[in-house]
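Dear Dr. H.,

I hope your travels went smoothly. While you were away I took the liberty of generating a structure for the chain from your last submission, since the lab meeting agenda had it listed for discussion. I wanted you to have the full record in hand beforehand rather than looking at slides cold. The sequence, exactly as received, is reproduced here:
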Amino acid sequence: MKTLFLAASGNEWSLSFEGMAPGWAFFLLLTVAVGTWLAYRRWVLEISPVRRVALSALRIAIFLIIAILLVRPVLNLTLNEPVRQSLVVLLDTSSSMAFADRRDKPDDVKRAAIATGLLNPANGLQQSLPENIGALKNITRWELLEKLAVNEKLNLWPRLAAQADLVFFPFGRSASDAGGPSGGQRPTIQEVGAFFQKFRPEQPATAIGDALRSAMQDGRRVGGMLVITDGANNSGSTPVEAAAMARQENIPLFVYGVGVTAAPDVIVEKITVPRLAFAGERLDVRARLRAQGMESAKVIVTLNADGSAVDEHEVDIGPGGETEVLFHFEPAETGVLKLEVKANVLPDEVSSENNVATASVRVTDQKFDVFLIEQEPRWDFRYLLAYLQKDRRLNVRAVMIDGEPGLANIENSPFLPALPDDREAFFQSQVLILGDVNPADLGEDRMELIREWVEAGGGIIFLAGPNFNPTAYADTPLASVLPIVPDSAMAAEEVAQRSPESFRLELTPQGESSSYLLMDPDPEENRRIWGEFPGVRWTAPVSRAKPGAEVLLVDPRPESAARNGPRPVVALQDYGAGTAVFIGMDATWRWRSRTGEKYYSILWGQIMQSLSLQLLEGGSKLTQLKTVRTEYQTGESVVISGNLYAEGFQPLIEPSVPGKVTVENDGRTTTQTVTLTTDGRGLFHGDFVARTPGQYSFATDRDPEAVLRFSVTDPNLEAQQTALNERLLQAMSSVAGGRFLREEDLDKLPGWLQEKSSTVAVYKRREIYRSGWWLVALVALFSTEWLVRRLSQLK
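The corresponding predicted structure, in token form, is as follows:
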């Protein structure tokens, strides 16, 4: 009976009885069956044995039906029946879908032929190329989808509509519900073709993850999702995470990748440049290049500043590889400098738009203040002070705690008579160099003031020494600012002990590329220079670097190893809005011995510049505002935040500060008001959406001379990814437990969708005893028994 009533696997059935207990019914049936057999055997002897057996069987069958009717059996069925749901089709309408793919490989041409109806979709790639394939070699991705929509051989969309209701969500930066080709009815090929004509690939960005999330939150019953895209995701949330959500929601996910995986192209992906630079000083500009779909090639890459070429390199890029190009030049004038990195266009590139990337940098000639505090006049202090005083960019002040009396009285002396106690003395500085100073001489209040200043954006250098720095700072307010954890378990004699032989320090991989320690733009030359520096005989005892700190230089000796590897010698970390640098040696002055001040000045100049720019870019000493980036794209939110101070560098006590954003674009100037609000501790922030491209500046009404500058451009995100991102799309389908499709797989898609279709449990009750067939069976059995008995001349 199970096979009679069940139509699909996974269904369930059970029997229940509403009459006499089955046990009693079976006992009665057994009793009358035995009695019938004995009666025919003992008293009906005049007929043949065959007829006796037949009559016994007929009578027992009659009693069996009566017993079944007495127990009143009921069949309970649980049937999993398919439910018609929606197939959500996420259709990529970003501008990258208008790219014309160069289909040089036979399989790529066959895929286009399958989609356009020139090849049988059921035979996949195992068939010969058709004739007249010229038009297929440069077909755009969108044209391919339009021809796919009206492909009668494949008949994809009507077949899918037979399984589910089609609901299309075209998407770029965001997704919207466009309904279906025929308002919920099963569409014809012609209706699907007309429906696709409504869309155009013109969206400026692709947010696959956001589109998936939006479709899943739509509220309708979704039986599956089909994503049609080239995978050029460049905005919004992570697509793989969104695909994982689809799996959690038990939504089957199919991902159809459109395009070719090896489109020949050279792409200038990113420019990295400081937010602020000094006029007349070397500015390093880094650009990342990526090549795809081609063998190794030589590319000429040029750096332009305000339209003029200032540096150029010839770069070898391997197949499918990435490389970083380092440019440098000295900006001559102050102001906002527009930078452009451009790679020459190679033959057969699919796009020339992504061969250019731009950025901007503000150039200043503003001097910055350096405050140097030392306990006593050691060698490192003397050489460092002499160098700082020669640098025309610096205003230098110094305090020698145990120095000779009267240092402050010498003409043009940088020395102060004593350590200052007021906030202004610290907060007017951009860089503080703290030497081997006894923290007891600083005092808790000054150390807390220094900590607060660093958190507000200051740059501090801990210049280690054998007496106090860093070991004596373990339990002070500055312990949290240090990028390292001092080894305070060592005795003072051990801390001060020097090696009898000098040893060289080693750059870490981070140190080799860090702007703090870069002696030469050429990596090989940079390593050579560091390898030739004289060795040192002492490094500060360090237990480990703090989590998040960046270690640039280490002591490689096994006997000095820290807890997690070589002892850090130069390390840095961000602390609030500021930066802390630890230099765990006291012999940088020895690096002058062979080259004079050349590399010594480069080292300290870069450290000073990197630390000071954080405060200089804020606008003024009392107005320290900044944006997260110096370049934004239209439609993005720009957040302005930072510290505002009253006279004496006391936090400004105001609930809000009004300001103006000025936009200059094509000779036109517009303004809008942006109000900054406070958190109550002098930290202010405000935000607005940049609607138009141009050069932007912001100034508060209370300090209009402190101007914050940044730029806004129209995005060209779609040109950054010209090849089909198969890796991303496969990762999405894998995480979701779905399928990644190419054109040769589309013919199987309706069947796969049916396998994944949802079912609903339907409960049915069948009262078997009420069937009229029991009466038919009884009449038939009684009639047959009567006939056999008449033929046997029995009553």
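Two observations you may find useful: The chain has five domains: 2-81+763-791, 86-262+723-756, 265-364, 368-616, 624-717. The two ends are 38 Å apart (CA to CA).

With kind regards,
E. W.
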